[in-house]
Design brief:
The protein is of the alpha+beta class. The protein contains 37 helices and 24 strands.
Length: 1107
């Protein structure tokens, strides 16, 4: 197969056109008598080296070159000579054996470059090559020396000090890349106007959206669609301008496999987009360590999204929109437009870093160079070692482009280029330099006085070192590096200190958030480097074949990739269908990285009981506020720690063996535990005191220096939460409820009143909660900063946030006994408290502790509901009354819905009763028992099955019987309104073709929707129907329903109903037109009338015309 040629690029020996135009068949220009080769002489070009030499002689500073400047200029008028280029493109069709031919003639002025022909060879869904017929005779911008590829890790060996002015839009990496992308940008589905519709992943924890996350994430990312035979996905464009103080960061990303079936991808499935660019990661880590939330947009190096190139034509990364790091938008623009383009994207790593330091004191505090070693000293070794490592891989290449790559990388690493040195000697020398540099750096890291160069927390030098070491570590472990020991570990080559240093980095929340993984391995990173070697020096890797083992090895090590594409089954121990247990810790304690045991629960145990209902088994999620207080303080202090979730229902044997008391929180290691001991220690107060003594960083965060002391704030938060749950026990007559009631009142610092009646106690507790919410609102509304501790949280904040989170969930899910519930904090008079909690949830420390960035925790609600069901069953019908509470909690909790259970809970409107119609028990179906719970009506919804499983029915055929599924639009409308209003309800499915006898007896019209209970029904408990009547009563009986039903939009209810009636009538009527049966003809005409077609318009027309 003849691949496309680059056209209109400068003709020099490194150009692919050189071999085409230098031969004798090149056409001679009739005017000048010169060949195209002579007309495009190399003396017309001024190389980048000359540019830099001129800059050092008094012109522009070295490194100030930008991508918008031409690297070539003219020294003569000869470039105006006319010329013709007549090109013939041929390709052999391997399937039919036919030769395809395309000819095009270009004249002076008709060919604008740099440009290249589109790639006409693609891949089908089976991974086999196929011809893309639409791409013949089409050209796109860009040539083989594509500046976009400078984003890659190969250029990442170059280092420019942050204070310098060097650097193009890629942070100083102004050298051109070494290869074009495998296909043109226009063949990507995103460039053709298609893109995924799911939201992108964000690094800030408010959910990304993004990345999966989409991202990462990321989570990050939907399945990638095929387009033109390729399998590439793109992250959607951001919506509107960035939020002030929350910048957007575009990071270069790649996949561990692109699913093409080539020598690098093999048979591995396409992987998610994962950031790999060292410069991008440095900015992201500094953002994370400084506590600056930001949105992340992953830009596939092989398929940059059209929206990104439109918004930022340079297309380089890292790029930032918003501050800190970018430039503020025009106030006039933001004031007069929707704001999408008012805040520009800007690039250039050094410039972004400089602006971040100037614009954010928090960022400047982290991005300092005051550690044990200077950034320049550390990077000098890493730059030299990393450059030697990469250069040694291609050192034996005999191709001109490969040799040029070796020399370029050596110069970036400040490695001497010896003239006349043979390739093998050069390879040996480069391997020796790589090993020597790593060992020198290992010696430096081994002498650190703290965990990092900056002490207990990373600084700028750590961020630069960590990202480069991560690349070197992956290159060595995968066998991509050519040092004699590889594939091996850093420890195997005598660099154990570097390995331990990297492990400390990977355990930090900032690393996990930025890299979207806690793995020490990244197949996406190695893929980028391997792909570059395959393109630039195919003679050293058998065209990529020799690198397939490298990619197989790194993909086997990359847990994140394998988990995302389903290559690995979950590894569990002592697993039971209902409970499950957390695996015990593996290996010795890492100094300074304690282990924390956290009491946890599940949103559902999949048992089918009154609280679980039909919901599936959920993941174990931490809920204990005391455990979370410790975790938040550790995370805010930058102290890495390991978390072990302990299921309250099923504490694992290993934990009880090591801590017989089995209490949580418990700590092993320091800070928090005992020094020089692996013993687990409990008791919150003692752990907190030891942590302050053992860690200066922890003590600095766990201070009590704010305007409100921890004792007062902790008491207030506990009183709000405990008064609400205690009110649920107040009127119980069971002996088992009394000690639980006393415990909650004690925890809430609520005094007992002698001879107080149960109803009076309940009302007093509700009043305490209402008054305490008002007191809390006054406290938070008058803070001088976002937190009690000021700009960052302190100990009082950690104490308050954990209890406020509980109260927020109780209110929203309806567990709270307050009359407004289910409602928000705002609806109980605490809007500032809601904003305060949202600020907390967006912080990386929150996600690290709660294992979720959701505002909701169904597991937390499950604990309280289960205790009520066990100890005060007379107040909740054995827990049955709390099923709507748990259904709502599971619906809101993103860690359960669309998470590990795979559920999309928002599709379920309410509780499906077990008394619904069943094929095997038509008349004996008992229906719902008793009367509905006040405020939680029952709704009978007309339903049907996709198949009744009747093999004699021509519609069912051989299809098995399906479940009952709601289909009545009026019923669904009613359910949607109630669900949006947060009104709990029980959903009873009524089979359209076999309505159960209990329903006919209870409601003789047997029509749907029908309701029992309020809001919507009548107080007598009778079943009533009629959509309009039900909705009108619900509006009058519920403030929440009235608020939803009375909202006004651009389309009135009447207009919406008219449009929908016309649409459905036209669709159905058109389907039955042409029926030969009288009933069919009459129905078709009736549908046409409903669609607005007048009788005189259709009486005289044929069925074909009407259709």
């Amino acid at each position: 197969v003849c691949t496309p040629l680059t056209v209109a690029c400068p003709i020099e020996p490194s150009s692919p056109l050189w071999a085409v135009f230098k031969d004798s068949k090149t056409t001679v220009c009739p005017k000048s008598g010169k060949t195209i080769n002579e007309m495009t002489t190399p003396r017309r070009m001024r190389s980048k080296a000359k540019l830099e030499d001129g800059a050092r002689d008094g012109g522009e500073p070295s490194g100030s070159h930008t991508e918008t400047e031409s690297e070539y200029d003219s020294d003569s008028d000869e470039e105006d000579d006319p010329w013709l280029v007549h090109l013939t493109f041929t390709a052999m069709d391997p399937v039919y054996g036919a030769e395809l031919c395309s000819t095009t003639t270009y004249t002076n002025g008709t060919l604008v470059g740099p440009a290249r022909w589109k790639d006409v060879i693609g891949f089908g869904r089976d991974g086999k090559p196929q011809i893309d017929w639409q791409n013949f005779d089409e050209c796109v911008d860009g040539c083989l020396n594509d500046p976009d590829a400078a984003d890659g890790e190969g250029a990442g060996f170059r280092y420019s000090p942050p204070a310098s002015s060097s650097g193009g839009e890629d942070g100083g990496r102004s050298s051109p890349a070494y290869a074009a992308s495998e296909r043109s940008d226009d063949t990507a589905f995103g460039a053709a106007g298609l893109r995924t519709t799911a939201p992108g992943a964000l690094s800030r924890f408010h959910d990304t959206r993004f990345f999966k996350a989409q991202e990462d994430i990321v989570e990050m990312e939907p399945p990638d669609p095929y387009f033109n035979g390729y399998l590439f996905g793109q992250q959607p464009a951001p919506d509107g301008p960035p939020v002030t103080g929350i910048p957007r960061l575009a990071v270069l990303a790649a996949r561990a496999s692109y699913g093409t079936g080539d020598q690098l991808d093999g048979s591995y499935p396409v992987g998610p987009l994962v950031p790999f660019c060292a410069y991008c990661h440095r900015l992201g880590l500094l953002y994370q360590e400084a506590g600056i939330p930001h949105e992340e947009y992953a830009v596939d190096g092989r398929d940059k999204a059209k929206w990104f190139l439109d918004a930022f034509p340079a297309g380089t990364t890292p790029a930032v929109q918003g501050t800190p790091g970018g430039v503020p938008g025009s106030e006039d623009c933001l004031r007069t437009t929707t704001g999408e383009h008012c805040v520009p994207w800007v690039g250039g790593f050094d410039e972004i870093l400089k602006r971040c330091i100037e614009q954010s004191p928090a960022f400047a505090k982290v991005a300092n160079d005051n550690g044990q070693y200077k950034t320049a000293d550390v990077m000098k070794l890493l730059q030299r070692g990393g450059g030697a490592m990469f250069a040694s891989i291609v050192a034996t290449s005999e191709l001109p482009i490969g040799q040029a790559l070796v020399k370029r990388v050596m110069k970036m690493g400040n490695i001497e280029v010896v003239d006349g040195e043979d390739t093998m000697s050069r390879a040996f020398r480069l391997n020796a330099i790589a090993s020597e540099s790593l060992k020198d750096l290992d010696s430096m890291i081994g002498k650190l006085k703290g965990h990092f160069i900056g002490g207990d927390r990373p600084i700028q030098a750590d961020v630069f070192a960590g990202t480069m070491l991560f690349w070197a570590h992956n290159a060595i472990e995968s066998g991509f590096a050519q040092i004699p020991e590889a594939p091996c570990s850093l420890s195997d080559i005598g660099c154990g200190a570097l390995r331990r240093y990297l492990e400390r980095w990977v355990k930090r929340p900032s690393w996990r958030a930025q890299f979207h993984s806690s793995s020490l391995y990244s197949a996406s990173l190695v893929m980028t480097a391997a792909d570059r070697v395959r393109k630039m020096a195919p003679d050293v890797c058998q065209g990529g074949k020799a690198l397939s083992e490298v990619m197989d090895r790194i993909r086997a090590l990359d847990d994140h990739y394998r988990a995302e594409v389903g290559l690995d089954e979950p590894v569990t121990s002592d697993w039971t269908p209902v409970m499950g247990q957390t695996l015990p810790p593996a290996g010795p304690l890492v100094p300074g990285v304690p282990r924390k045991a956290v009491l946890s629960y599940r949103a559902s145990y999949g048992s089918g009981d009154a609280l679980d209902g039909p919901s599936q088994l959920g993941p174990i999620m931490p809920f204990c506020p005391y455990c979370h207080r410790l975790g938040l303080l550790l995370a805010e202090a930058g102290v890495p720690f390991e978390t072990y979730v302990i299921d309250m229902r099923d504490k694992p044997a290993w934990f009880l063996e090591q801590l017989p008391a089995g209490t949580t929180p418990a700590m092993q290691g320091t800070p928090g535990g005992l020094p020089d001991s692996d013993q687990w220690m409990g008791e919150f107060d003692e752990i907190l005191a030891r942590a302050k003594q053992q860690s200066e960083a922890f003590a600095k965060v766990a201070n009590d220096d704010g305007p409100y002391k921890t004792e007062y704030i902790g008491t207030l938060g506990s009183r709000i939460a405990m008064s609400q749950v205690a009110a649920r026990y107040a009127e119980s007559n069971l002996e088992s409820a009394k000690p639980i009631l006393g415990m909650y009142m004690q925890f809430g610092f609520i005094p007992q009143v002698p001879d107080e009646s149960s109803p009076a106690l309940r009302q007093r507790l509700i009043n305490i909660a209402i008054d305490s919410f008002a007191e809390l609102e006054d406290v938070i509304a008058n803070l001088n900063g976002p937190f009690i501790g000021g700009k960052t949280p302190n100990q009082a904040d950690a104490f308050l946030a954990t209890m406020l989170y509980w109260s927020h969930n109780a209110l929203e899910c309806g567990l709270s006994p307050l009359p407004q519930a289910p409602c928000s904090l705002k609806e109980v008079g605490a809007p500032s408290a809601m904003e305060y909690l949202q600020r907390w949830v967006r912080r990386p420390s929150w996600k690290e502790c709660y294992k979720s960035d959701s505002m909701y925790s169904a597991a937390t609600m499950m604990v309280v509901c289960q205790m009520l069901a066990n100890n005060a069953s007379d107040m909740c019908d054995g827990g049955r009354q709390f099923y709507p509470v748990m259904a709502r909690a599971r619906m809101l909790d993103s860690s359960y819905c669309d998470g590990k259970t795979g559920l999309t809970c928002k599709a379920y409107f309410g509780h499906r009763m077990s008394g619904e119609y069943d094929d095997n028990d038509v008349d004996a179906s008992p229906g719902p028992k008793g009367t509905p719970i006040p405020g939680a009506p029952r709704i009978a919804m007309l339903s049907a099955r996709a198949s009744d499983g009747d093999p004699l029915d021509p519609i069912d055929g051989v299809s098995p019987a399906g479940p009952l599924v709601p289909y009545c639009t009026y019923c669904i409308r009613l359910c949607l309104i109630l669900a949006e209003a947060r009104v709990p309800f029980e959903l009873i499915l009524i089979d359209h073709y076999a309505k159960p006898q209990w329903f006919r007896d209870a409601y003789p019209p047997a029509k749907t929707p029908a309701m029992q209970g309020t809001p919507g029904g009548v107080d007598s408990g009778e079943w009533v129907g009629g959509f309009s009547d039900l909705l009108e009563r619900a509006v009058g009986q519920s403030v929440q329903v009235a608020r939803i039903a009375r909202q006004r939009g651009p389309l009135s209810l009447k207009d919406a109903e008219t449009l929908c009636e016309k649409l459905t009538s036209a669709l159905v009527g058109g389907r039955v037109l042409g029926s030969k049966y009288p009933a069919g003809k009459a129905y078709a005409r009736q549908c046409l009338e409903r669609a607005g077609v007048l009788p005189e318009e259709y009486m005289s027309k044929s069925d074909d015309e009407l259709s």
